[in-house]
Amino acid sequence: MLNVAMAEVISRLPRIFGARSKSASMSDFFMIDFIDDRSYSFNPTGRLEFRNAVARRVPMKLIGTYLSPYARRVAAALISRGLPFEHEAVNGYREFEIASRYNPVAKVPSLVLDDGEILIDSTAILDYLNELTPSAPLIPAGSRARRTTLKLAAIGYGVYEQAANLSFRGRDVAATEAGRWKAQILGGLRALDEAARDGGPLRATPLDAAAITAIVAVEYLARTNPDLETLPAIPALAELVAEYRDAPPFALTRAAA
Amino acid sequence: MLNVAMAEVISRLPRIFGARSKSASMSDFFMIDFIDDRSYSFNPTGRLEFRNAVARRVPMKLIGTYLSPYARRVAAALISRGLPFEHEAVNGYREFEIASRYNPVAKVPSLVLDDGEILIDSTAILDYLNELTPSAPLIPAGSRARRTTLKLAAIGYGVYEQAANLSFRGRDVAATEAGRWKAQILGGLRALDEAARDGGPLRATPLDAAAITAIVAVEYLARTNPDLETLPAIPALAELVAEYRDAPPFALTRAAA
Questions:
Q1: In chain A, at which end, N or C, are there fewer CB atoms within 10 A of the end residue's CB?
Q2: Alpha-carbon distance A228 to A59, whole Å?
């Protein structure tokens, strides 16, 4: 119930907030309580109207700029499951001191829970979010389906790692090293492409942790390594990305160019 | 039952196989079926005798040299839970082609299951091993204890990452960058130290995924960055490491200097 309603609201964000919504932080939006999905409706002009809505404490706060694919995949997972959160776009590299306050090893994302408990590491955070949404698991329970999702997610963030290496250090290392990173990126993408074919595990709905990770991987790669033309080699994965490009989890977390 | 028996057998390895055991691979040992713990006994001279023991197919094969803390923590977890495995000490960096056969992004560890299914990524592999040992979980089920273990494990491998960066790239980067990595390492160690104090979560028995990850982190750091004197700053963690130094999960997975 909640998920469907939230997705509908999010899909109408531009109409609700107008042009400003494109740069508004998610927290502006999620400060309204949507736990009760009868608390709002759309009037005939498409404008959102609230009934019985109360501002309340935001239950979770995500720390980390969406320039980080690790932070972005957590944000996309939160939005895909209709989980309200506030967002603090900390750049772990440029704002090292701030990132250190949330995480002993000073990385993003961190997730601050309602009672002040802080989670770190995108994989551990996704494990927790999965606990919150048993009716639409991000990670299937037990056995083979679970292993497949965790494996594909690991391949996806393996692509993040090497895309970051290639982008930030590619010019400083020997050509053989850069070539190795490219091979790792392409190897990962090909495996994801195979999984994105019709009936493949990345085609599960709703999107699971692996599919979210993979879609973010392709966009991260395109942004950080625009010269690396990979899309022709991964038709099924490219199709998956195109299909979800404008869906709220991705449209609302796309970092400015 | 199995775990206790296995630990006992492992503790007697030198007497069983003599000097050779020090360099024997775990697979020599685990080719014997210990599922039935009445299948062996020790004779009065301390020598192992088998009854009803049969050689059988090794159910899992771990790919990755113990120079990799990620591979080592998986091996330590396998041994700590008495899970038989064969070991192929592939160096992901020097043996890129071999690592690529098991993992699209060419990293270690990979874990090959009995039916040929291949798992990758140490976190995903630990998640699977946890399924196999419900009576002695590596990762507690649900809620706060689970989050704590996953968080501490993430801090531990955050230390792996920055220890690797500092060791392999520390001389090629600016002092500020190297200083940042040291701060991340020390921040992580201090958080682990706090968790290793009496009654702290790293003191749970049997060792969980977080404690295994932390112990491997301290040893990895000492080996890769011997000039970084950290032990005085982490008394509780150092005590934990000293206590388990000679236990099978660590003694049998220590990479040669």
A1: C
A2: 40
Instruction: State which of B20-29, B36-45, B226-235 shows the largest mean pLDDT.
Output: B226-235
Q: Which helix (H) or strand (E) holds B74?
A: helix B69-80
Residue in A70, A97, A102, A105 to test binding to B, most B beta-carbons within 10 Å: A105
* Residues of A whose CB is below 8 A from B121: 150-151, 154, 158
Going by C-alpha positions, the residue among A191, A224, A195 that lies closest to residue A211 is: A195
Sign of the C-alpha dihedral, residues A94, A100, A106, A112? negative
In this predicted structure, the answer to whether residue A13 has a pLDDT above a threshold of 60 is no
Residues of chain B contacting A96 with CB distance shorter than 8 Å:
180, 183
| Phi and psi, residue A21, nearest 5° | -60, -25
Q: Which residues of A touch B120 (CB under 8 A)?
A: 151, 154-155
Q: In the predicted model, is pLDDT for residue A12 greater than 60?
A: no
pLDDT number for residue B231 = 84
Place of tokens 């494109």: A22
Strand order in the sheet with B118-120: B86-88, B61-63, B110-112, B118-120
- DSSP β-ladder status, A86-88 and A61-63: parallel
Q: Which residues of A sit within 8 Å Cβ distance of B?
A: 96, 100, 103-107, 117, 119-121, 123-124, 127-128, 131, 142-144, 146-147, 150-151, 153-155, 158-159, 161-162, 172, 180, 183-185, 187-188, 190-191
* CATH code of the region A143-251: 1.20.1050.10
Least Cα distance to B26 among B85, B80, B82, B72 occurs for B85
Radius of gyration of chain B, Cα coordinates, nearest whole angstrom: 19
| CB neighbour list of residue B73: distance below 8 Å, 6 or more residues apart | B122, B126, B156, B157, B209, B212, B213, B216
Beta-carbon separation of B143 and A131 below 8 A: yes
Tens of pLDDT along B199-253? 999 999 999 999 999 999 999 999 999 999 888 899 999 999 999 999 999 999 9
Residues in chain B: 257
In this structure, the dihedral spanned by the alpha carbons of residues A66, A73, B173 and A178, taken in order and rounded to 10 degrees, is -120
* Domains of chain B by residue range: 2-50, 143-251
- Best B91, B96, B103, B105 residue to mutate vs chain A (most A CBs within 10 Å): B105
Q: DSSP for B97-139?
A: HHHHHH-TT--S-EEE-TTS-EEESHHHHHHHHHHH-TTS-SS
Q: Judge: B154–A96 Cβ closer than 8 Å, yes or no.
A: no
Per residue in B154-168, pLDDT tens? 999 999 999 999 999
Q: Which residue has the tokens 């196999």?
A: B132
Q: Does pLDDT of B107 surpass 80?
A: yes
Q: What is the mean pLDDT of residues A65-83?
A: 97
- Residue in B with minimal Cα distance to A146: B128
Q: How far apart are CA B184 and CA B182, in angstroms?
A: 5
